[in-house]
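Render Leishmanolysin-like peptidase in 3D.
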Amino acid sequence: VQFTVVVCVRVGVVMAVKVKWKCHCVLLVMLFSNIVSGMFTRRHCSHHHPKPHEVVHGVHIEPAHVMKKRSVDQPLRILLYYDESVYRLDEEKFQLINNTVLPEAVHFWEQALMVRKTGNAIRLNRKCENNQVFYRKGDPYSYCKNACEEKTMCGEVQVPEEHLEVCRTCNATGMDCGVQDPSVGPGIEDADFVFYVSAMETERCHKGLTVAYAAHCQQEAVLDRPIAGHANLCPDSISTKPQELEILLSTVKHEILHALGFSVSLFAFYRDADGNPLTPREDNGKPLLNERLQARQWSEKVIKTVVRPKWRVHGGVVDREVQLMVTPRVVQEVRNHFNCSTLEGAELEDQGEEGTALTHWEKRVFENEAMTGTHTQNPVYSRLTLALMEDTGWYRANYSMAQPLTWGRNLGCDFVTTSCKEWMDSKRNIGKSIHPFCDKVKRDPLETECTDDRSSVALCNLVEHLSPLPSHYQNFDSIPHVKAGQEGYYGGSVSLADYCPYIQEFTWRSKNVVVRGSHCQYVENNPHKDKNFALESYGESSRCIDHTEQMWEERSCSQVRQWQHWGSGCYQYICKSGRLHLQVANYTYTCYKAGQQINIRIIANDWLHKGALVCPPCHELCQEQFAAVGDRCKPDVTPPPTVLYHSDRLVCGSAHQPSVSIAVATLLLVFLSGVT
C-alpha cells in the first residue's frame, strides 16, 4: 500500500515570528507480509493398523532353535518391490520417489537397525480362503482349510507368485493334508523385509493431507517379526518442490517404521532380550484379541495406564489418564531426556481417530519427534524411537543414527507430568520464560520469534477457535490482548498437542501456494532480494537471531519502507576465538555478551537497511564447536570502546533529506498504531 505525504520541515528562522519551511513530497510504502491463515504446516498420520484377519502369521524361514541362537548383528536389508501403479506416476514424481525419497528412507533404516541374520530365502505364506488355517504339531508350515486364495495381497499390491510358498491344504476336518502344487518360486533372497510399494489415489488419500500410508502384512513364525509390508504413495499429494522434500522424506520414513514395528497391531508381539514374549499367548500361539481395537491385547510390560491427578486446567483440576510405553530401554531414554528419574515411561498419543491414538508419541510431550501423530516442524528420529524399536526384541539400534531432540530436554518431571497451563503459570510466577510454550496471539503487526534450538524463525501458534475448547484443553485464565471471558476459545493450533500453544516454524504463502519456509538451514528459504528487508541469509551455517523491538526499515532518498512483520531472522554465524560472530551481508559483527544489541546500517540493492540484532548467549551456538577443539566461550564482557561496527550512511542531494526521512518514519509508526 502506498501513500504520498507532504512533509514540511523547518529550515531556518528569519525573525522571531517568521519561520521558513521547505516541503518535500515523500512516498510512504507499507509492505505487508504474504502470510495467510493456515500458515502452520500440519500433516496428520492416520496409520490404519492391519486388522488380525489382514495379517498372515507363521511364515517359516528357519527352525526356532537356529533363529533364537543368532546374534542381532545383521544390518537390516529391505527389498522394494514396485506395483505397476508406481511406474504410472508422471516422470518428475517418479524420479523423485525412485531416485531420492525411497532410497534415502530405506537406507536410513538399514543403517539404524540390525536384525538376526536369516540364512534362507523368505517365501511368504499364501492367504487362505476365509482365513481358515490349520497348524500341525511338529510341522513348521501352516495349511489352509480346503483351499488357498487365488491371489495373496499385501495392502493394495498382489504378491508375485515367485515370492510365495507352495499352497498347502487340509480338508475340512484337518485331515488329508498336503501340497497342492510342488513347484515353488525362488523366494526373496538377501532380504530381511520386503516392501510392496504402490502409488494409487485411494479413498484414504483423500482424508486430510495424507501423503503415504503403510503397514505390515506378514510375520515370521519364530519371533513374530514383521517380514513383509506395503506402502501406498498418494500421487496427488506428492510435491516435487525442494522446500517440501524434507516433509515427504520424513513421512515415508515414518510410514516404514509403522510397518517395521511401531504399530498398535504389533505391540502385543514384542519380546524381551532373550526372545521371550512380553505378552502371554493363547493356545493358538497368539495374544488375546481386543475386539474393540481389533488388535491383539498387550500386557502391562509393554503399555501401562497411569492417572495424573490434579491436572490443572482453566477453572480447576481434573484427573488425566495416560497410556505409557514402559519397555526398559524406552523408560531409560525418556528419563534421561527429560532429566526425570521417576518417569514411568513415554506417553503415547491419546487423541485422533483410529490410526493416530496409541500408535504415536504424545505430541504435547515430544512435539517434533518424527513418530508423533502430525508433522509440524523439523522432524527428528530420536534415541527414544530407536529404543522402542530395540525393545520390540527384533532389532538392535545404531544410536549414532539418532537425531537430537531438543523439545523438553532437561526440563524435568513437571514438564511431562503436569499440564502446559500449570507449567506456564509456574514459570510466570517466578519470572522465567514459558518456552517452549507461548501466549502471543497472532496479530498485526506480525512479530516472529526463534525456536528454542534457533533452527527456525517461528510464531506462537496460539489462535482463536470457532467454539470453546473442551474444558480439559482450556489452558489460560487470561491472555494478553484477549477480552476477559473469551479465553476458552483460544488454544494452540495443533489439537494433538492438547491445544497447548508453542513456538512453531511456518511457511510463507501467496495465493495459498508455498513460497518458502522459515527453517534457517535450507538455502531455498532465502527471501527474494527485493523483499529481504532484514538482510537475512538462509543456509547450512545459519541460525535464528532475535531482532530488537523496533521494526526494520529500508530507506532511499525518496522512500521509507517498513515491513509489517519483524522480531527475528536467519543469519550466518561463525564461532572463533572464544566468541560468537554474526554475519550480515558480508559484514561480521562480534558478540561480546548475551543480550548485546548490534545496530545494522547497510546499503544493499540501493536501499539503506536499518535494524538491530540481539546477541544470543555464546554457548547456545558455539559450545559444541569449541568443545570439539578444546576451547570454550569466553565470559561476557562489555564491548570494548575501540570496537567499531560497520555502519553505512545514506547520502542524498538535499542536506535536509535525513530529517525528512525521520519525520516520515515517525508518521508511519503513528499511522500503524491506529490500524485495527
